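User: Quick sanity check before I run a bigger batch. Here is a single chain. Can you write out its predicted 3D structure?
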Amino acid sequence: MARPPLARGLYAITDQQLIPEGELGKRVSEAIDGGAAIIQYRDKSSARATRLEQATVLASLCRASKVVLIINDDVELARSVSAAGVHLGIDDDSVRAARAQLGDDAIIGVSCYNQLARARDAVAAGADYVAFGRFFASNTKPNAVTADIELLVDARHQLQVPIVAIGGITPDNGGALIAAGADYLAAIDGVFGQADVYAAALGYAGLFTTKGR
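Assistant: Done. Predicted structure follows.
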């Protein structure tokens, strides 16, 4: 499968604690309808069989909608469901190891927290995008390290790959991050923790039509 293009937009991340049982596909469809450009399947606690079943559903849904599906942390799961790619944290496989398993067309993203040097190393190793954050207080990761908005400015000047901003981002505060250099705004609770997922996604997606660089 050819590599799907990366542009700009909402990067919506699932959370099994926020999505009622049996409604993952429905809620993700609502996020896509609201304008999500990337869906990340993130589940760190469910049984392997459950994760495989859910990721398979999302892979089919995202392919039909021409939306990028990224699997959090799990290279083998990404390969099994033919997802577009994988997102790696500091304790996960290396970029080169993931590339060896997933192939040249896979999208590989890396969490870089508040470390520009880590981002430069990730890009040098072949990462397709890098993520920084948290930028604001986060319900999902309240103890995560804090990144400064100036980091985005510096990263935009130094890196030639898409940049994802994450952590407490809302439609009210996200515009400043886009202006500073973010290509994607990542949201978990801001999308899937809301009563109206479609409207929540629409709020983020709308920023990219009004805050273009």
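The chain is about 40% helix and 20% strand.

User: Great, the batch can go ahead then.
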